[in-house]
Amino acid sequence: MINLTHTISETRNAIQKQISEGKTIGFVPTMGALHEGHFKLIKQAASANDFVVVSIFVNPIQFNNPDDLAKYPRNLEADIQQLEGTGCNLVFAPTAEEMYPKPDLTEFDFGQLDKVMEGKFRPGHFKGVAIVVKKLFEIVTPTKAYFGEKDFQQLAIIKKKWLTFLRCR
Ligand code: PAF
Predict the structure, then answer these.
(1) What does pTM read for this prediction?
(2) Which of 18, 49, 144, 149 has the maximal Cβ count within 10 Å?
(3) Whose CA is nearest to atom 1 of ligand 1?
(4) 64 CA → ligand 1 middle, Å
(5) pLDDT tens for residues 47-58?
(6) pLDDT above 90 (res 13)
(7) How many alpha carbons fall within 13 Å on the CB side of residue 13?
(8) Where are the domains of the chain?
(9) Distance between alpha carbon 160 and the CA centroid of its chain, in Å?
(10) Is 146 buried (19+), middle (13-18) or exposed (0-12) by CB count in 10 A?
(11) Domain boundaries 3-168, CATH class
């Protein structure tokens, strides 16, 4: 049975309970519209951790085109149905208001990493990704986090910033 949370406090409480029982936490952040690639990561997380958290959040601040944000597919119910049997224990599906009660002004220095390739054409995109990943990591405090390799530049940026954080837990 998958537990569904919408608020940061109920999510933290559910995860802290697991951590206090000595469990390891695997985390797969997503924007929903789940597909085989996600299920593969979730199964990987389930085989290496005691408790698996999947976040489903269409992060508005990583879209630099409002039409793309409006058109992004959202179907939480279908996503949750498909998660049954994958090893996912908890889905965290916050609203934008819950995640950003006020604008998050964190700045990151990725060196050249966010100024080339896709970053060149999507100003602010990787900063938006980094802000949400930082917030999600603070909420979930994962032992291990799993990201798709398809988005090569995003993975490089996340590895640069957070590999040490994850290795510390
Ligand atoms: O790769 C994605 O789906 C998103 O960029 C992520 C990492 C969930 C952040 O919103």
Answers:
(1) 0.93
(2) 49
(3) 30
(4) 14
(5) 999 999 999 999
(6) yes
(7) 8
(8) 3-168
(9) 16
(10) buried
(11) alpha beta
